[in-house]
């Protein structure tokens, strides 16, 4: 009987929308770390809009999940991937929020490196999620996201260690430590997405 009932494939479109939204948010974060003396407040507002769009997509997926009889993937996997994608966008926005609230006037090389790693991870998420429907060429993108997360770990550790090795204002140490940790956590959430996508691909191979 289940074979006679068409599966709801809209979920894959939603995942692609969420991934694309993350990528656009990551591009704004790059501009925040590249533009010295730029209007961080305006960039933060842009990221807030992307974060709200991510929430909207998440709610659409959850509603569709509750109303769909036959899903293309296990319900638990759809829910887990939805939450993981939303978490990535939330962390990108959180990093931007901290830069604005702490009135960062000039970014650091380490922040730019972390922003670049977030952007590259977002690009890989788009590729992995886009291939998820046909379960094709997913693994290589998941592996790359894991590699990027390891690089972000190294950059974050060195950046935080550098704060304490050099002469810094204690307030600046607190500010940048939290910004670095938030940006690194964003790459952790990217890795969560990769792990879920990898698990789904293996389960449905």
Q: So what's the CATH class? A: Mainly Alpha
Number of strands: 0
Kindly report how far apart the N and C termini lie: 23 Å
Helix percentage: over 70%
What is the helix/strand order? Answer: HHHHHH
Q: What is the residue-averaged pLDDT?
A: 91
CATH topology: Methane Monooxygenase Hydroxylase, Chain G, domain 1
Helical element count?
6
Q: Extract low-pLDDT stretches.
A: 1-6
Name given to the CATH homologous superfamily:
Phosphate transport system protein phou homolog 2, domain 2
Per CATH, the architecture is: Up-down Bundle
- Radius of gyration of CA atoms, rounded to a whole number: 18 Å
| Helix/strand structural class | mainly alpha
Tally of discrete structural domains = 1
Shape category: elongated
Largest sheet: none
What proportion of the residues form beta strands (DSSP E)?
A: under 5%
Description:
With 205 residues, this protein is mainly alpha-helical. The chain has a single domain (7-203), classed as Phosphate transport system protein phou homolog 2, domain 2 (Methane Monooxygenase Hydroxylase, Chain G, domain 1, Up-down Bundle). 80% of the residues lie in helices and 0% in strands. The chain has 6 helices and no strands. The chain has helices at residues 10-34, 40-67, 75-101, 109-130, 139-165, 170-203. The longest helix has 34 residues, at 170-203. The chain is elongated and about 60 Å long. It starts with 9 loop residues before the first helix and ends with a helix. Residues 1-6 have low confidence and may be disordered.
